[in-house]
Design goal:
heterodimer, A: alpha+beta, Thiol Ester Dehydrase, Chain A, elongated, B: Thiol Ester Dehydrase, Chain A, 5-stranded antiparallel β-sheet, 1 helix, 5 strands, 8% helix
Amino acid sequence: MSAADGRHFATIEIGEALGPHEIVIGKARARAYAAVCGMGSGRFHDDEAARAEGLPGIIIPGNFSLGLLSKLVTDWLGAGPGRLKRIGTTYRAMVFPERRLLLQGFVTHLEPESRAVEIDVWIENEDNERLVIGTATAEFPPGD
Amino acid sequence: MAFDQSLIGKEFEATEPVTVSAEVIGEFCRALGEDSGRYGRPGPDGAVVAPPSFAVTFRNTDAFFQYTPRFGRGFDAGKEVEFIAPIRAGDRITLTSTVREMYEKTGRSGTMTFVILRSTLCNQRGETVAHVDHRFVHRNPGPGE
């Protein structure tokens, strides 16, 4: 399936994987995200300010992690009829820029009546620690 | 930090409407790495649609932040977002927030208070576009703290 075709409910199987996608978020990009979201706290922009709070340096906002996992799902859905209906995230540990991160997920449940797909998603670091975990629901229209 | 349970259901003053521009959606897409072509540029109907997670970028009123933890005393534990309708350039978004839930849990590190605040996002037509549940954890002071 290409992203141009998009996913269709009938072809999705439990256990189907999303990713893994490897990314490294640079500090400039982390700052840009915080800036466009109006998140002015020094811990997202300035290493000195972050260290003054006891952190090793700037951190990636939790909202950014949520955004990356949302994008993992919408990229997987592609241009088809499915849409991201909900996502829930739990921030288990801080996410730092300039580290290798893996975005991953898999389909856990299919609900034929409501045409919903339940997905587990997470971000892990290079030590295989799950820094952010979550669940998402994708929804497909009747007749798809 | 102790909470008054009677605050559950408390509604904060609604925010002033924020007009969403195509430029801000574009900046958000660039920062997020959104390059699918489905967001951040005019679609078939000419509208510039924001990625779903744009819904978490709207800021609450200052009163809301009385219920969020100070750094070192707690943390943002997560969010639950329900996406109801797309947010498009030109939309005027208003947030209304309530205290949805409060509860305590005691573990090895002491007692923690969980506070869930719900923000509902509405557009200029009064349509709800998203619900965002913010989950905050406050670490309660131990003896002598």
